[in-house]
Amino acid sequence: MDVKKNKTASFKINKTPSGNIYEFFCDLSHALVYSSKPIRADNPEEELMRAWGEGGKEYFNRCQKCGKWVIDAMYNPDVWSCVQCVPIEDYPDYCPVCGAKSQELSNFCHVCGAKLFYGGEEENEKTERK
Amino acid sequence: MKKRNANRKKSLSYFGFGTDIMKHSVVCSECNSLEPSNRMYCSKCNSKLPKSNLHDLYKSYHISCEKCGTVLSNSMHYCPHCGNRVKASSELCAL
Predict the structure, then answer these.
(1) Given CB atoms, is B58 within the 8 Å cutoff of chain A?
(2) Integer CA distances (angstroms), B54 to A102, B12, B19, in order
(3) What is the tens place of the pLDDT at every residue in A88-119?
(4) What is the value of pTM for the model shown?
(5) Cβ distance A32 to B31 under 8 Å?
(6) Alpha carbon distances (Å) from A104 to A101, B1, B2, B12
(7) Which of B8, B32, B78 has the CB atom closest to A31's CB atom?
(8) Residues of B in contact with A91 (CB under 8 A)
(9) pLDDT digits (tens, 9 = 90+) for B19-31
(10) How many CB pairs below 8 A link A and B?
């Protein structure tokens, strides 16, 4: 399996008399997501990009952090990242930084001021600086 | 908060995202086909499907709350679901 980082998802080429069939896989789960029809082009790069553009791409989401191409199930649409980079979060009952019980519909902790939903260390450092 | 989270989970699942979808999906180790987790055999190659689903894979990337099993990001000191104190990786190494 060949991985062309960032340009397409990982793929495998099946050679047939009528052209090459490209199979694209999720970079995290390794699930087979899309098989192209037989394609012929002047060079391998063009062939790959045609297979990717003619249907492969629409089944994948690109992680904005690591550049992996993943299926919907392995994608966190809240932060446009794969679930390996950022786990999916629910609205918290407790502050993840200080452990205080959070108040309904509040975005920040009423005790320590940390961002409650997708805070992370970077986000909370920004809040502290403000 | 529970109702808000339930609605959120529902809408994520509706669009094919989220942990519920992961729990119901398994990848065939022979042909890499994506199958529902309630199947015993792959619909494409008929080989036996692995027991671990995509949610198990997802859990393996992160730490989980010891009390309730919620998947946590590395920056969390307390579980946002049950409020349990999360042991830092340095504390776990010391044990």
Answers:
(1) yes
(2) 30, 16, 9
(3) 998 889 999 999 998 877 889 999 998 888 87
(4) 0.84
(5) yes
(6) 10, 7, 10, 21
(7) B32
(8) 1, 4-5, 8
(9) 999 999 999 999 9
(10) 108
Whole-number Å distance between alpha carbons of B38 and A49? 36
State chain B's maximal CA–CA distance in angstroms. 47
For A89, left (φ over 0), alpha (ψ -120 to 50), or beta?
beta
Domain residue ranges of chain B, discontinuous segments joined by +? 1-61, 62-95
For residue A83, report the phi and psi dihedrals to the nearest 5 degrees.
-75, -10
Q: Are A36 and A51 in contact (CB under 8 A)?
A: yes
Q: Is B63 on the interface with A (CB under 8 A)?
A: no
Query: What is the C-alpha to C-alpha distance for residues A80 and B12, in angstroms, rounded to an integer?
Result: 13
Q: How far is A104 from chain B (nearest CA, A)?
A: 7
Residue A16: enclosing H or E segment and its boundaries? strand A10-16
Residue extents of the structural domains in chain A: 10-82, 89-130
- Residue B36 touches chain A, beta carbons under 8 Å: no
As for the ipTM of the complex, it is: 0.86
Contacting residues for B10 by C-beta, under 8 A, at least 6 apart: none
**Residue A111, token pair as written in the block:** 């005790």
Q: Do A72 and B75 touch (CB under 8 A)?
A: no
HSE-up (13 A, CA, CB side) for residue A43: 2
Question: A61 pairs with which residues across the strands?
Answer: A70
